[in-house]
Design brief:
Length: 187
């Protein structure tokens, strides 16, 4: 899902739930369950590692097809797949990857960071205790209609698109966005 995370991240499947002193999981104001700051988190803190299974692009495409089928049935439609390299993705859909619960926001308080080959969710500003943690999922523009956004930030265009491409979405009139989203396709 996320563009340019790492050229060669070494990803190990976690054996037990990833943990962090900084966070606690709970019901999200944005979508499903979310992750909250347990105490004030200083800007730049690596908050929790994003772990999962390293898979090929072909396997990632197969899993995305499954996800869309679940979405049509009204099941769990969450996306946990990151672009790691040209050949491999990271599938974070494992209960042990607590960071999978962190929601997208168009005005996020965290970012993705690679530290010595491992993917971390890092604070991009000082975060007060009790705030929900978010980062930019960075979805590609062509898929926008598949990913409605309920982040509630003032500049939210209503769909999840990487910040660098969000201007393209804003060019589409709001009524047209609603119509195409109902059809479940961007074009
Ligand atoms: Zn948003």
């Amino acid at each position: 899902m996320h563009a340019s995370v790492a050229r060669s991240a070494k990803i190990a499947r976690p054996r037990r739930p990833t943990d962090s002193r900084w966070i606690t999981a709970g019901q999200s104001a944005i979508h499903g369950r979310g992750v909250y700051a347990r105490e004030p988190i200083p800007d730049g803190t690596p908050v929790i590692e994003y772990t999962g299974e390293r898979i090929t692009k072909a396997e990632a495409a197969r899993r995305e097809t499954q996800r869309l089928a679940r979405q049509r049935r009204g099941g769990d439609d969450s996306v946990y797949i990151f672009n790691l390299t040209n050949r491999h993705d990271l599938d974070g859909r494992t209960r042990r990857n607590v960071a999978r619960l962190i929601n997208h926001s168009c005005a996020p308080n965290c970012r993705i960071e690679v530290v010595r080959g491992r993917v971390w969710i890092t604070a991009r500003r000082d975060i007060p205790a009790g705030a929900e943690l978010t980062f930019d999922y960075g979805f590609a523009f062509p898929d926008w209609a598949l990913h409605p956004c309920r982040c509630g930030s003032p500049r939210c265009p209503g769909f999840i698109v990487a910040s660098a491409q969000r201007w393209r979405l804003r060019r589409i009139p709001r009524a047209e966005r609603t119509r195409r989203a109902a059809l479940g396709r961007a074009r």
